[in-house]
Design goal:
Elements (H helix, E strand, L loop, with lengths): L18 H13 L2 E5 L6 H11 L4 E5 L10 H12 L3 H7 L5 E4 L2 E4 L4 H10 L4 E5 L11 H11 L3 E6 L2 H8 L14 E4 L5 H15 L5 H11 L3 H14 L3 H20 L6 H14 L4 H12 L4 H13 L3 E4 L2 E4 L2 H10 L1
Parallel strand pairs: 1-6, 1-7, 2-5, 5-6
Antiparallel strand pairs: 3-4, 8-9
Helix pairs in contact: 8-9, 8-10, 10-11, 11-15, 12-13, 12-15
Amino acid sequence: MGYFNPEPKRRREDLFNMESELSTLDSGLKRGKLVVVSGLRRYGKTSLILTYLNEKRLDYVYLDCRLLPSGMISLNSFLNLLEEELSRHDWALKALRGVEEVSVGGFGVRFKVRSERSLLRVLHALEGKVLVLDEAQELRRSGYRFDSLIAYAYDHLDLKIIVSGSMIGLLYRFLRINDPEAPLYGRAFTEVKLRKLSDAESREFLIKGFEQEGVRVSDEVINEAIKRFDGVIGWLTYFGFALTTSGEDIDSILDKASKLALSELEHALRVYGIGERRYREVLKIIATLGRARWSEVKRGVEARLGRIPNNTLATIIKNLADSGFIRKENEEYEITDPVLQHGIRKYY
């Protein structure tokens, strides 16, 4: 498969420098029931999880919560996603044949009654397996309490659960693990935190990746890629794949990558409705300045859009930080993703 294959990795040899994270994930699932995998976009969360599960040959149900509808998420839409995933696995079809609430056939798995009771019966039938909720922060957009569902499974079922998310603040808002009033409060869990690569690690990754592809690349190009993609392994993979398959120059690759990052950003901002314009303006100011203090953001927004109350601006900045789009360092805000910053500067 190789380092530059754009699909999520499923073999240890294709996974770069994640031995420690694999070990933490392994010990977390062996000792407990709940593991939280956190890291910004394109830090390799999905590859880590799938590599571990496939290497251990575990039966798992993998739900990518980004595939759920935009807007409010209903229990019915979650069941639709679960049906699709369960229908892919022969072991799941076998395990569910005796469950009254579902029908199993050539069409796969279908819920006869689309209710919480039916969902719980299915989860009981999946005991001994692993449930993965990828990008689980999306489940906060629901009137149904999915955190209560996780707590129920934790307390009553022999079911391992992996919860992952790239919008780390929003993920913890959803889980509310430290809230005494929340269903998951007090439950022990293991956290696996992913990080970006150092410059030295980025260099090693690119050199080995190009060796796997049999392509010679100059030190100058590698140095520029390290600078432009700033240790984000997903973008380094995107760069390596594009260069080896199309021969495009780094500027063209960065441009295409930034349009992809912008598309993901715009999808995330739609939830704010008429307030989206303010969110975009805050991001534009921070991206343009590189680093921006609160006062600079406020002046910039008000110069373009008129007065903005301090509490409104505080909410916008908190939401952007919790979504992983910005971070605060030394009283200044910056865009977390260099590719996204490029896109905002160029196209916003």
